[in-house]
Structure formats: C-alpha cells, structure tokens
Amino acid sequence: MTRRPLCLLCLALMLFLCAADRAGLPLIRGNPVPENTASWIEKHPQASVCGEVLQTTENEFTQSIYLSNAYLIYQPKKNQSEKNQSKKISIENVKVFLKKKVEVPVGTVVLVSGKLERVEEKRNPGEFDSQQYYATQHIFYFMKKAEILEKSKNYSVYRQGMNQLREYLGSVLEKISGKESGIFQAIVLGDKSSLDKGVKLRYQVSGIVHVLAISGLHISVVGMGIYNLLMKTGMGIWPSGIISLFFLLQYGIMTGGSVSTMRAVCMFLIAVGAKITGRIYDLPTALAVSAVMMVGDSGAYLYSSGFLLSFSAVVGAGVVVPAITRNGKEKLVLALIASLGVQLTMLPVSLYFFGEVSLIGIFLNLIVLPTVGILLGSGVLGVLAGCANYKVGSVVILPGRILAKVYDALCKLAGNLPIGTWIAGQPRLWQVVVYYVLLAGAVAVLTYKDAGKGKTFQKREEIQNKKPQNKKIWNEKKQNSKLQNHRLRNRAIHSVGKENERNRFEINQAGRRITALAVMGIALLILTWRGPEPFSITCLDVGQGDGIVLRTPEGNCFLVDGGSTNKSSVGQYQILPYLKNQGISRIDGIFVSHTDQDHINGIQEILELTTMNLNSVKIGCLYLPKWKNPPDAWQKLEALAMTAGIPVRKLEAGNQLKAGKLRLNVLAPFQEASGSDVNEDGMVILAEYEKFRGLLTGDIGEETEKKLMAQGLLEDVDFLKVGHHGSHYSTCQQFLDTVRPEYAFISCSAANTYGHPSPEVVKRLEEAGCQTCFTMKNGAVSVCWEKGEIAVKKYIEG
C-alpha cells in the first residue's frame, strides 16, 4: 500500500467524507439551498425554476426532463417597508415531471412552473434510498405537474444528436432482436426502459443482473476491440489509443453515464494512457484514481450501492481472486474459486443494501462471464449491420439472441431451486469493517513474502526441465571423470534438498490456505451474526394503506395486510425489502383483514412473484376472513395462493393460532359475516405475547367496535393499530375507554385525500393518554416487548 500513494489518498478521502458526514457536514448527503429558502419552498411549493435541459425521458404516459444549473425564482418575505423582489437561488439539478409531452431538445434553456418537492427520503428499513440515489446526480428536488412557460430557440446540437442516435439505435435493435430487444438495449445502450420486469427480476434472483449493466467487461470489449482493430491497421499506439479513447467517451455519454460505465471508462482511460506512455498499468491505482474522480464530483457516491458494488467487484477480481487462485492448476476449479472470490468481496455490500445474496449466481457466472462477450459483440455488430439492412442485422445478432434465451432458461431453472438465494439480513457497519479487515488479512496470508519463494522454486524447476538435452551431454562428458562418484553423491544430496524444499513449500502453502480459510470462516460468522430480536409489531410506511409485520424471538414472522392506493408495487419495494433487511426468509402466515386494495395489492404482488419463482421469501400459509359470499378480490387471492402451492385457511371469530409464546386470537369476522361490507366484516386479531397485548383492527368502524366490546375481550391492551387509518368513523370514545391502549399507530399518507387521520380521533387518543405514532411522520414504526418492557422505535424522528 505504501508503494501506491494514490490508493492511500483515496482511502483518506473516503474516511474524511464519512467523518464529515457523521459530524453533520453536508458533503455526502447534500443540502443545496439555505435553510430559509428550503423553508420557503415547503410553504410555497408552487414555484418557477429555470435551467438547461440535460436529458429527457418518456414512456407511454409521462415525460420528464432533467434540468442542470437550475435556479429557483422566488420572493422572500420582507419587512413592510421593503418591496418584495424576486431572487434567484441555485438548486443545482432538478428532475421535472411535465403535465403533457413537449418537444424539448437537449441543451434548451427552459422556464418551468410546478410543484417543487424535496426528493423523498427513505422511509422503511431495506427500502431503496431515492434521496441518496439522486444526490449522486446533484438532484435534490423534483418538480411535479409542471408546464413549460418559456424556452430558448438554441440547444446543443451535439448532445441532442447523441440523444437521437441512442433512440435510433434502440429502434434498430427493437426491429432486429425481437423479444430480446429489451436485453440488447440494456447491454448495448444502457437503456433499461424497455426491459421486461420479469426478465430483470429473473436475472436479479439468479445473480447475473450485472450482465444487463454497462460494466468494465462491456467497456473492455468495445474499447479494446476498437484499439486492437486500429493497431492491426498499422496506426500505432498513439493514434490507436487516442481514437479508441475518443469513441469510448462518446459511447459512455450516449449510454447515460452510469456508475459502472464511468468507473470502467476511467480505468480504460488510464490503461490506454499507460500503453501510450510506455508505463505499467496498475489496477489498484487505476481503481483508486477512478474512485477519487467520482467521489470528488459527488460525495454521495460513497453511500451508493451501485458505486460500492462496482468497485468491490473489481477489487475482488483484481486483488482477491489472484491471491486465492495462485499455484492452482485445474481450470474449472480455478474458475469456481474465482467466482467465489468476487462474491466474497461483494458480500458485505450486497447484504448491507439488499439483505440477500444469490448462491446460484456463483455457478451461473461460470457460464455467463466467458460468454457475455459474445452477447455484447453480436449486439454491437448487429446494430451496426442493422443500420444498413435490417435482415443482415437480424442474422448477425442471432448468436446473441440464442445466448439470451439460454441465459433466460438458466435463470428460470435457478428460480426453481429451493436454496438459490441466501437471506442473511443487513449487517451493521462495524461488522462490515471487521469483515473487510479479516478479508485483507486472509489475502495477506496467501501473498506475504514466502509466496514469492514458491514462484522462484517453480521457475528454477521449469528451467531445469526445459534443458534435458544439455543435462545428457553434460553427463556423457563427465562419465569417465574421476569425480563421477563424488558428483553423483552430491547430486543425490542436492536432489534430496530440492525434494525437501518442495515439500516445505507445499506444506507452507497448505498451512497458508488453511489459515486463510479459517480467517474467512470467522469473517463470515461475524458478518452474518444477528443478536436476539425482541417480539415486535412493525407498521411499515406503505403510504395510504396498511402493512404490518409481527416477529417473535423464536424466529416466527407474520404479515397482516399489505397494500397501498398511492404507492405502486409496495410488495416488491417496501414489504419484501424490509423482510430481507431484517434477515427474514420465511413468512409463517399472511393475514388479510379485508379485500380493499390498500390492504391487499402488495400481498397480491408477492403471491404473483411466488408463482413465477421470483420471490426468495417463503410463505407458509394465507389466512382469509371466512365470508359467506366473498368478493372477486378474495377469490383471486385464494387462486394465486393455490397456484403458488401455498395453503389457504379461512378464519372467523373464536379461532386461535399459536407460534411459540405468541397467540393470535381471531375476534372477527363473526359467523354471520357475508363479506358485503368488507370493512365491517373484516378480520380483527388480538396478538398476545407473554403479558403483552396488541390489537389489530383493520378498517372496522364503530359498528363492529361495539360488537367486539360486548365480547369482553378487549379490556386494557398495550397497543392499538388504529382502525381505518384514523378515520372519524372508527375508534369511538366508548371503544377507547374499553381498550385503554398505551401506544397507538396510525398508518396513512400525508398526501391522502380522505382527511386521515381525523383530528377528532387524534384528540381522543391524546386525551386517553395514548402515545400515538404516524407512519406519515415517522416512516416505519415498531412497538417492541422485551424483558417485560415496552419500547417504541421510529425509523424517522420527526
């Protein structure tokens, strides 16, 4: 490391940024405007912004534009003696969602008006962090429902041309590659907008999703292909290097400049620069320089999953793999160990951000990595040929299409395996640090000092074995010498010495491998260790809806409802990520209180993913309310569960389920429930763990509350999930006087149009002495029972 000062500089820069972030300095997360301006935006969200169009994206329904060098035009509040004057405040870049589609060339300066909002922060454990993702692009605000007031006539001919070229090449790929066009647009152009959702999920579950991103392998194939082609024409190192670099930079700009693309282009730039100047290319130094350049541009990259995964993969391939595969001979074994080495290097990052890692991907990459160059090469050549003639392009791209079908078949096969994915949960930062320290120690053990002797010994033996004829001549010349017996004796002694040296070397290497394996075993144990969890009830922030997770110290997990009316795909983006983040690989049961969409569409999504073998979280049973005339949504859930091989049970008042110390008492629906009024006929559950009592009420109203009170089972509960998102039709005063909860959670969205939660209900809860939490304010909230004490945890303090 001391011989690589740039690596030390990179490490020092990252440590400084992390320390600054801990100290509260906005070097990583970013805070683009003064506090008074941010406050003004919150109070006056309808605003005007001026900026230059950097990029446009659109789909069938909407269009968005990215503005660079944007500034806000606003009127701060002045003293009465002063006149209000417009001011301009820089807010860096802004993503604008337009009301209607408008032709806006890249480079156009526009004035837009709309609702300005801070990019939403992460609200649940395991959820994708949009705020951090957009911070890498210096985007801190969205403008929604916007319209363009003015636009300039001038625009960037070059950037607009690159944008149009990308769109044209995408249309060519669509015509020559058929059903696989989404895959080719992703790997050739970096455009995933046309990629089928199911295909992307299959690649993710199988651990080969990196194939769909512009990465170092893609850049190497394209860049080195151009460089070698130019070299064969006799251009020489300087012209070939400069021209290949020029084309590669344009390719990087055209494909969108993703994290992996930028990293790969930087490293290729250094590699070609080394060739041109006649210097030795050093991978760790090139990687450090690339990291410094990217983090220097935006400190937010330091917390970016894409950045960390990309760089850890290269460290694994360039540093860890050579250490663990040295002196190996069997190619297949070496390839498997190499794939494992890369996965071990990326493991902490994968678990920290996603809570899971694909085990089958270790083996699939043995097939994918050696062949992905064919897929990319046929895509590049096919689109070039397709620009001249579609039929020729279709023929050229055919090998890649066949390979894409093979990949898809392998992914489907991998999805059927019961142990294809390992869900270990998110480790803590100290566990990640200790793991990497131990990994570095294992690499040092394999490469430190004496390992060089093995190379010297092997090289000397190879030289001796390459000259058998010289040995023979020497022996013939000396056979009549008087010293023949003496030399033979010395040779025997020397042979014994060599054999002893070989044995010592092999024993030393075996000891090193055993030590390294032991160190890595300890590292894995530390990384995946999770302390005992208390019993908890967690209300996830799913927007306007419900999603409740119950966990026990014994390892049982139950999901009660899961849906939303203002957030899409809550099953995939909120519920499943939370479970994986917590290391939950199995849901023992899913309870559906009733069949309104804000309670079931996430569950429906999870069941659909399970039927397609795209859900790594196993499901034990689906519990539905027992109704005489269930609606279509109820029947659809039952059919999906049966298709997925998940048993279905119907529950009514009086049923009880036990899981260790946990007792789930079903208080409703009553026997006469028909399902005609899904809210009042909904399932109500009283959860009891040791002395803790929690009541989950779904969307029941005052009518059902009074029926429950008549049973005499609701007195003095510790926790209440407030019914119907805090509606004034629920949680009547009589009900509160009976239940007397100490803690209550209300699950609703700040942007809902129903007026939830009702001020009347909130006031009643306060007057009852109940500590109330709101998902719209606090994100995911949990009530925990441990050692006879109750604690409330809020994901967002506010």
Keywords summarizing the entry:
798 residues, alpha/beta, OB fold (Dihydrolipoamide Acetyltransferase, E2P), Metallo-beta-lactamase, Chain A, 3 domains, eight-stranded mixed beta sheet
Average pLDDT works out at 87
- Architecture of the largest domain in CATH? 4-Layer Sandwich
Q: Structural class per helix/strand content?
A: alpha/beta
What is the CATH third-level topology name of the largest domain?
A: Metallo-beta-lactamase, Chain A
Numbering strands along the chain, what is their spatial order in the largest sheet?
Answer: 16-15-13-11-10-9-24-25
Tell me the count of domains.
3
Helix content: 40-55%
Note the beta-strand portion. 15-25%
Distance between the termini: 44 Å
| Tally of individual helices | 26
CATH superfamily of the largest domain: Ribonuclease Z/Hydroxyacylglutathione hydrolase-like
Shape: globular
List how many beta strands DSSP finds.
Answer: 25
* Top CATH class of the largest domain: Alpha Beta
- What summary fits the major beta sheet? 8 strands, mixed
Gyration radius, rounded: 32 Å
Which stretches of 5+ consecutive residues score pLDDT under 50? 450-457, 466-470
Describe this structure in words.
- An eight-stranded mixed β-sheet has the order 16-15-13-11-10-9-24-25. A seven-stranded mixed β-sheet has the order 17-18-19-20-21-22-23. A five-stranded mixed β-barrel has the order 1-2-4-6-5.
- With 798 residues, the chain is an alpha/beta fold.
- The model is unreliable at 450-457 and 466-470 (pLDDT under 50).
- It folds into three domains: 32-155, OB fold (Dihydrolipoamide Acetyltransferase, E2P), CATH 2.40.50; 164-303 and 355-426, no CATH class; 535-794, 4-Layer Sandwich (Metallo-beta-lactamase, Chain A), CATH 3.60.15.
- Strand 22 (743-746), helix 25 (759-767) and strand 23 (771-774) form a beta-alpha-beta unit.
